[in-house]
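Handoff note, outgoing to incoming analyst
You'll be picking up this chain. Sequence as last confirmed:
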Amino acid sequence: MQIIDVSIYFITKGHSLSCYECMGLTGSCADQKVKTCPSGSSKCMSSTAVTQNVSIKSCTVDCQNGSMNFGVVKTSYSCCDTDLCNAKDQLILIVWALLSILTFNIEKKY
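Most recent structure output, in case you need it:
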């Protein structure tokens, strides 16, 4: 009877999601740490705000992939649901920021 009790414990215990967690004020999360998500969190999230150069990674209950453009600030959200799936920074936004800077500098010269 003890063997059955142990197997039921492992089946019902479940698996906790692990995500990278950080808040980078330079547009990158160089010092990200692994966090075991609390109960109820089913996704890892990565968010970047261009112009303000802020990157955030964390566990979340739910989120949608997408982006918003407010003119001077563009924000992008990426969500995933496997362990440590939010490792990479939002490359698209980094490229967008570099192109914006180059365009601004070219327009400024002419």
